Amino acid sequence: MTNNASKLERDRRDFIKVLGATSAAVAGATTLPGKALASATIRKPRYGMLIDTRKCVGCHACSVSCRSENNVPMRKHRSWVEYIEKGTFPDVSLNFLPRLCNQCSEPPCVAACEDNATYLRDDGIVVIDPDICTGCRRCVRACPYNARFMNPESGAADKCDFCIDRLTQGMEPACVASCFNKARIFGDLNDPDSDISRMIASNTVSVLRPEKGTKPNVFYIGIDNADESDNPSPGQYIRVTRHRRGYRKR
Amino acid sequence: MKPDPGKLETPAGLSRRGFLTLCAGAGAGAALPWRSFQAASREPQVPAHSWSRGEVIPSTCNMCVNRCGIKCHVVDGVLEKIDGDSRNPKTAGGTCAKGQAGVMALYDPDRITHPLIRVGERGAGKWRRASWEEAFEYTADKIDRIIEKYGPEGLLFSSCTDLTEVFFIKFGKYLGTPNFARHATLCLASRNVGYFATMGSVPDVDLANAKYILMFGANRMEAFELPHNRDLITGLQNGARLVVIDPRMTVTASKGKWLPIRPRTDMALTLALMHVLIEEDLYDKAFVANLTTGFEELKAHVAGYTPEWAEQETEIPARTIIKMAREMAAAAPAVVIYPGRRSSWYTNDAQFRRTLPMLMALLGAFDTGGASFFNAGKVKLGGFDWELEPVEVAPRFDGFDEERFPLAHHEDGGYINLRDTILNDTGNYPVKGWMLYKQNPLAAVADSAKTLRMMQTMDFICAIDVQPSQTAWMADIILPETLYLERLDPVWTPAGTTRYIGIRQPVVKPQGEAKTLLEILQGLGAALDQRREFETPFAEVFNFTMEDYLDAQLKKLPIDRATLMKDGIWVAPGPGLKLGEYRNGNKDFKTPSGKIEFVSERFRRNGYDPLPVYEPVTGEPGKQRLVTGRYAYFTHASNQNNIWLNAIHPENEVWINPDLAKEKDIEDDEYVIVRSRVGEVRIRAYVTPRIRKDTVFITHGFGTNSAGQTTLYGKGGADQALMEDHADTISNNQALHETFVEIVKL
Predict the structure, then answer these.
(1) Residue B423, CB-side half-sphere exposure with 13 Å CA sphere
(2) Is B659 on the interface with A (CB under 8 A)?
(3) Which of B117, B592, B633, B722 could form an SS bridge with B97, CB 3.0 to 4.6 Å?
């Protein structure tokens, strides 16, 4: 990610163009931008994602698509899928929890950054400027979701940014585009008519660790976010397979 | 888009990626260990993406056999990202992890990008780099010598289903051998035999609109078959009830009701379900009267197969079986009895598969929405005129014919049968040369030690492959084929509810010196022409380009090659699927009676039980039955070595029920030995309640013998090393779930 800084700068400019202008920017895109981005042209958007875990089969299209799109270094993960197995034979459940940065409205990582290298954009995406980032790791430690990592190539903190580069081209984030069961909906939470807003309005949704007060903008339907530590009683089996090779739980 | 030979010396992306330092120091002719051919970096750096630049080229994926529509983002000759093509009727824009990892498959440092000739013992991993000219001469010499000594029938041709396979088979046929082995008996041969006998073909299924879906083992959420996996999710969203019969809780089973059946007793369940439907008068009388034969015989046949009896066999409670039958009848005809795909389970599989369309017919769950149906057919492609003089061939060497396997598909061969024939030397004549294209029998066929012994009887083995697969590693020469992202293939059209044509076309230049299969066969043919005279010289047989072939395919269609290459897909106009043609009597089934046959005339004529008879199951005390299957991010044994995919699941495990683990004092994640009569592997234990105590599961594709697969080598255990060589008696489909193993604590 050597050209991250210039990329980010370019993204900012391009994004303003997309927001400020015109259906032309959208119409010229290679992939249909979806309702969310179209509506972005008329109002200030706040981007969010809704993941319907009932449709998720844990196939990892999202995590590999993310690795390919964002050149995520091996053993680091912007996007990953947790498998949660519970129960006793034959009454067993298996659930999937696709994970990514929650793009919080009250991001502890931003509060922890003393250099303003990480900040919350107007559109709700939390980004990192690797040129400013000193690699102090405070943000990595501050994130209650373990969504951040140190990128060994740039030396800066890194994480999911909803594929800003693709958004500027009128495309959906890579994980959303690759999901063949359409378990992920990306869009503008400020637009009451967007698919994501309507889905949130008509379903019971939840966020991860709401007690942290971070106000995540990644929502889930049908979630099972159990952790081994949630169930200390012996006899009840819970296994969480994180699929984050190289990752150590703190 | 023929590769420009002048540019092959400097493959696209060489300088930017910096890991294609393949031949540094590898002087031609020097014997080098595998590692010397390998990249400097194990984790290639792909440049940052720039969607604003470059071009997007539509094509067709080849990471498995589904052929999803893809769009490839290429910048300065380098493939940066693959996205799904939302216009594709089967995939609607989605991809899977494997499809995404196509980028890594293309730039995989373990790829073979120039011909390699073995210099050490077979399997020792000592190779030397050869020019194509030398590779063609070498291979033609060996083939020529085999023809000289044994005739052309001394050659065995193995290949797997793909768009270019037709050229490979044509080459073998024209050489004069009748001996082919294809993937069917490693996969679905028994299902096909069972369905063909019962209803003339294998139906498609309308999972999106079904109200009740019954799946035996089929694992569509991990072993993808598009659009079924998408449709299944849609069906569940629409409120369908899904019941999955499997000794192991797959991802598919987790999305519905999991019934952990005692393995190999599936037929007891289907017979008992039929018993209840008939006994309780729940079957579709009009459908049975109009579209089936042999109902009275079936009624008498299943009278004794009560739910209480089935409970003893299957360990599924009788009340559950009765409830299932009633629920299915209530949901009928919107019921899918899923045919399954890989049916290489048990030695009675063809007979078991027959019971599925029988159950379907009792429910009247055919030729209507939410049920099974026959597809709208494919787009009619033009034929290519081969202008060949006919070649006389000998009968097959292995007796895989009318007499011994009357209902099998003889041209596909039967792997278990042919390997035994070679090892026992019971063939009509010797087979001493093995040509392999895109097939990996050392990984794919049960009892790999036996396959190795078979390979040692060969005078010559030639593997055409993109990577050093388990089988290629044991070959005498490896000819590197282009990856799907580097070549133009014949166009293809799937059977489906929408008729369309897709194209696979080069999106980047070939890596190194890789050639397309057609180019390889042209080169090899030219070298053979110099050695002997053929009825039609190979130079004439293969005197065409892939573009010519495509033009012939598209001749009668209102689309030309250039437009198809630009658009990537062409959807045929006009009505697609029309349901009801069988129900209203306009169409007949392709069976002797023209109806769905409860009593199979074909089976009766050929001496098989015309009604499926249940065989009681015997276990082996103190041992577990071994079953295998897939994870969603691997295809067969083909991409466990892909760096991106291997990172998800670096090593396979043996699934062990917690009670068994307790008895054996085995901890989760510790290494154990799994031992069968034919082999043993060392493998991690995965202690999970997702499997029965009498069954263990090992996913396929690990424990490779190929040190050339540098990411995978040394990881996990090979299921095929443990499996005994059982086969379905009617189709010769291998039976992978007939082996009992012992779990030994280390």
Answers:
(1) 15
(2) yes
(3) B633
